[in-house]
């Protein structure tokens, strides 16, 4: 299926056509909770790119070199999430030591990423789509890039919406959802890209 | 002192602390699965099973688990229940498992499950944790099924196996598609806000 | 104090993980036969939808397409089920085409697709797919492309309709190019 396309198409599919937030609905908690400020969103977005690419790659390796040969595929849910949790811990320690400015920029978002649905989803989907290692990397870059794009666009829109007159029961989250609905509608337009 | 059986733990999940409409948690599966009534019922059931199961086990061993390792322990327990549900569905309801797709394993990182484990089950006894699980699960299921009724009813003219309108009905397509999901949820939350005159964020 | 806590913490974690792993292994072993059965039933259900008298099924290949030969209870070959992947409007589609020994189409089913619900997705419905039954090779075209084309596209979903039609035609082509496999004559 997807694994027979060239890397460029895999990337495009993950980045736009099947955007993880607006089309696949994954990682919404972080989407709505954070995106009220552009800088926070950028921080989260970059953190996600970093973590997702690493954890997708490690999960892929663990699955194909450890779980499959030992016929332990049923442990994949538990193994993946524990891998992600450990990786995040590990990355936090390393970044704190080696790149303190980056660490400060990412702030609390780094540990928060463990529960980011998108990270786990990308790991799972990389296996389900039967990618080889390189395709998996391209895919995770596309997915995290798409997440970044959506979250930034959304933050920008919300900053604009917050200064607009909105009925009281719609204020805050409801109007955010309606904004997201319109964004999602726009992204639906990318569906025809495959035919290019 | 805490009561042995606190029925409020059960009722809170329905309205006041409805995980979706008030606490704004667990959104991912909500939006993705609410396009179909039958899938939503299945999702609600699977979710409640995992929530209740992990709540009960975590409450049972809460005094044995030291602080530093509690998150990995919770995650392991939750992941176990999710995997059980996964294989159970694969064996007996493969159609549902196919429709739930990646959202079934995603229950592991569902904010609601982990959140309740951390905020409630690790601090309350087994019975109350069980009630909390059932209440929150029911609250989630009610919302997702309600959304599905609106989305599938308007977007497809059906409610599971029932045809709602005649075959001439031109479905309100957008409801079934992603934008419709955001739209319906936005309106539902606005409705709840106006009903309880409150607006909170996750 | 802290070190003791850490050690007991790790021990608890290992115990929990071991118990979990054990429990999961049991669940896996218990459900495995049922899961295999489900997969088998699903595949056979599909083959029988295309060839109702089929009882025995043999996987194989024709060119680079996955095929399954269908035999009835007397051992006679009654058809070939061919899987074909095509690119539709929204992405890849998985078609399954039943070809009878005479080379005609016994049925078409769509197993997976990414088409727009309510528009392109309508190509997965029976009322579109039954148009393919018993068609000859040169009739497997959309009505307005060739004079002999017999397929009505779904209005508003020409790309999806064309993808399916072309896919079915390519299946016939591939099967045709293997004379003796299905025993049909040149059309």
In short:
The complex is a heterotrimer of chains A (196), B (202) and C (187). Chain B is mainly alpha-helical and 202 residues long. In chain B, 63% of the residues lie in helices and 2% in strands.
Structural class of chain A: mainly alpha
The parts of chain B where pLDDT drops under 50 for at least 5 residues are 198-202
| Biggest interface and residues each | A-B, 45 and 46 residues
Mean pLDDT of chain A: 81
Uncertain regions spanning at least 5 consecutive residues of chain A: none
Please specify the SSE layout and strand pairing.
The complex is a heterotrimer of chains A (196), B (202) and C (187).
Chain A: H1 7-17, H2 28-34, H3 38-67, H4 76-98, H5 100-106, H6 109-112, H7 117-128, H8 133-161, H9 173-188
Chain B: H1 8-12, H2 27-33, H3 37-60, H4 70-92, H5 94-100, H6 111-121, H7 126-156, E1 158-159, E2 162-163, H8 178-196
Antiparallel strand pairs in B: 1-2
Chain C: H1 2-50, E1 56-62, E2 65-71, E3 77-87, E4 92-99, E5 105-112, H2 126-129, H3 158-176
Antiparallel strand pairs in C: 1-2, 2-3, 3-4, 4-5
Structure description:
- The complex is a heterotrimer of chains A (196), B (202) and C (187).
- By secondary structure, chain A is mainly α.
- Chain A has one domain (7-191).
- Chain A has nine helices and no strands.
- Chain A has helices at 7-17, 28-34, 38-67, 76-98, 100-106, 109-112, 117-128, 133-161, 173-188.
- Chain A is globular, with a radius of gyration of 18 Å.
- Chain A starts with 6 loop residues before the first helix and ends in an 8-residue tail after the last helix.
- Chain B has 202 residues and is mainly α.
- Chain B has a domain at 8-143.
- Chain B has a two-stranded antiparallel ribbon with strand order 1-2.
- Chain B contains eight helices and two strands.
- Chain C has 187 residues and is α+β, with helices and mostly antiparallel strands.
- Chain C folds into two domains: 1-50; 56-176, no CATH class.
- In chain C, 39% of the residues lie in helices and 22% in strands.
- Chain C starts with a helix and ends in an 11-residue tail after the last helix.
- Chains A and C meet through loops of A and helix 1 of C.
């Amino acid at each position: 299926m997807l694994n027979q396309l060239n890397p460029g198409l895999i990337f495009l599919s993950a980045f736009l056509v099947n955007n993880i937030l607006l089309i696949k609905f994954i990682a919404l908690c972080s989407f709505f909770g954070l995106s009220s400020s552009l800088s926070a969103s950028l921080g989260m977005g970059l953190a996600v790119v970093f973590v997702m690419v690493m954890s997708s790659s490690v999960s892929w390796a663990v699955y194909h070199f450890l779980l499959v040969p030992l016929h332990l595929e049923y442990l994949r849910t538990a193994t993946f999430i524990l891998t992600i949790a450990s990786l995040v811990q590990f990355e936090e320690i390393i970044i704190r030591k080696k790149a303190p400015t980056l660490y400060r920029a990412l702030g609390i978002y780094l540990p928060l990423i463990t529960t980011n649905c998108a990270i786990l989803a990308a790991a799972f989907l990389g296996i389900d789509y039967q990618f080889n290692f390189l395709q998996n990397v391209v895919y995770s870059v596309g997915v995290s890039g798409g997440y970044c794009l959506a979250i930034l666009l959304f933050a920008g829109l919300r900053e604009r919406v917050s200064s607009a007159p909105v009925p009281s029961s719609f204020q805050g989250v409801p109007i955010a959802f309606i904004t997201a609905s319109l964004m999602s509608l726009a992204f639906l337009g990318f569906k025809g890209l495959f035919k290019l | 002192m805490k009561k042995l059986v606190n029925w409020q733990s059960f009722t809170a999940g329905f309205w006041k602390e409805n995980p979706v409409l008030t606490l704004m948690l667990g959104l991912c599966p909500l939006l993705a699965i609410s396009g179909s009534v039958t899938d939503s019922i299945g999702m609600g059931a699977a979710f409640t099973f995992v929530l209740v199961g992990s709540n009960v086990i975590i409450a049972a061993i809460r005094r044995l688990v030291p602080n530093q390792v509690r998150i990995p322990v919770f995650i392991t327990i939750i992941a176990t229940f999710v995997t059980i549900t996964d294989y159970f569905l694969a064996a007996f309801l493969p159609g549902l498992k196919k429709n739930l797709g990646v959202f079934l394993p995603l229950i592991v990182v569902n904010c609601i499950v982990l959140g309740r484990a951390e905020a409630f089950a690790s601090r309350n006894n087994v019975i109350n944790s069980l009630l909390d699980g059932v209440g929150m699960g029911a609250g989630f299921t009610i919302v997702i099924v309600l959304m599905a009724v609106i989305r599938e009813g308007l977007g497809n003219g059906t409610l599971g196996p029932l045809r709602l309108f005649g075959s001439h009905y031109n479905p309100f397509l957008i409801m079934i598609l992603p934008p419709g999901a955001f739209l319906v949820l936005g309106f539902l939350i606005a409705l709840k806000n106006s009903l309880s005159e409150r607006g909170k964020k996750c | 104090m802290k070190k003791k806590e850490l050690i007991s913490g790790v021990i608890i974690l290992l115990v929990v993980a071991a118990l979990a792993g054990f429990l999961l292994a049991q669940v896996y072993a218990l459900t495995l036969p049922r899961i295999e059965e489900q997969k088998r039933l699903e595949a056979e259900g599909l083959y029988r939808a295309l060839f109702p008298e089929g009882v025995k099924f043999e996987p194989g290949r024709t060119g680079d397409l996955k095929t399954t030969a269908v035999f009835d209870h007397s051992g006679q070959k009654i058809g070939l089920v061919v899987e074909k992947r095509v690119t539709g409007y929204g992405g890849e589609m998985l078609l399954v085409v039943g070809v009878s020994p005479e080379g005609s189409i016994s049925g078409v089913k769509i197993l997976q697709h990414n088409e727009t619900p309510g528009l392109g997705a309508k190509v997965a419905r029976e009322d579109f797919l039954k148009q393919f039954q018993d068609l000859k090779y040169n009739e497997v075209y959309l009505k307005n492309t060739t004079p002999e084309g017999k397929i009505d596209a779904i209005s508003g979903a020409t790309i999806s309709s064309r993808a399916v039609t072309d896919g079915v035609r390519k299946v016939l082509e591939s099967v045709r190019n293997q004379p003796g496999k299905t025993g049909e004559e040149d059309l």
